[in-house]
Backbone:
């Protein structure tokens, strides 16, 4: 059974260098909070429905850390499981919060996907709580390639009957279907300066975007 990575992990926090750069422990504490009375990390609505207020909190506290991570200055975090998960959150999630509706929202995707590959290769996902695994696998779901989408579906397939995480598997299926149909996510076109096809426009008018 997976065990959540705790802030007291013997691997420890990545040591602080610049005072404006967070540690891996800071990132995990902010994102996941504390376990509940049963020792389980709860699923937080802020992650996907936090809106402008949640984006602003991340921008105010972690923008220097995000910029440093995008510049490769936090690559040493990936030497252990805690740092890898924290860096994944910064590159795959914080980018989307801080740079929403901007091309830079996707600037960390390639690095995040490589980190997710490394995490799986090391078997570190087995040390993660289920809600932490969600964010370890999302870089594959965010990719505009069918092979990565297939991998996201496979990684989340065990959650299909889980009362907390079934929606995560459902979203993986829905994302894969979009890539099957269009080869890309049409809702990103405006931010990335891509022309939207007639088929994509019809889809967006009916379904919106992810």
Residues:
């Amino acid at each position: 059974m997976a065990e959540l990575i705790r802030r007291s992990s013997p691997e420890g926090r990545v040591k602080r260098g610049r005072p404006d750069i967070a540690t891996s422990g800071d990132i995990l504490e902010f994102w996941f909070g504390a376990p509940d009375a049963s020792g389980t990390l709860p699923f937080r609505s802020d992650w996907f429905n936090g809106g402008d207020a949640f984006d602003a909190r991340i921008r105010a506290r972690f923008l220097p850390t995000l910029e440093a991570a995008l510049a490769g200055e936090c690559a040493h975090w990936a030497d252990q499981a805690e740092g890898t998960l924290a860096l994944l959150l910064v590159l795959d999630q914080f980018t989307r919060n801080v740079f929403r509706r901007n091309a830079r929202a996707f600037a960390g995707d390639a690095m995040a996907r490589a980190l997710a590959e490394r995490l799986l290769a090391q078997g570190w996902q087995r040390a993660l709580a289920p809600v932490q695994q969600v964010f370890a696998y999302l870089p594959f779901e965010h990719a505009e390639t069918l092979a990565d989408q297939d991998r996201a579906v496979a990684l989340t397939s065990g959650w299909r009957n889980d009362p907390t995480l079934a929606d995560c598997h459902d979203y993986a299926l829905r994302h894969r279907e979009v890539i099957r149909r269009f080869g890309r996510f049409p809702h990103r076109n405006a931010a990335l300066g891509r022309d939207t096809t007639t088929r994509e426009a019809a889809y967006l008018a009916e379904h919106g975007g992810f």
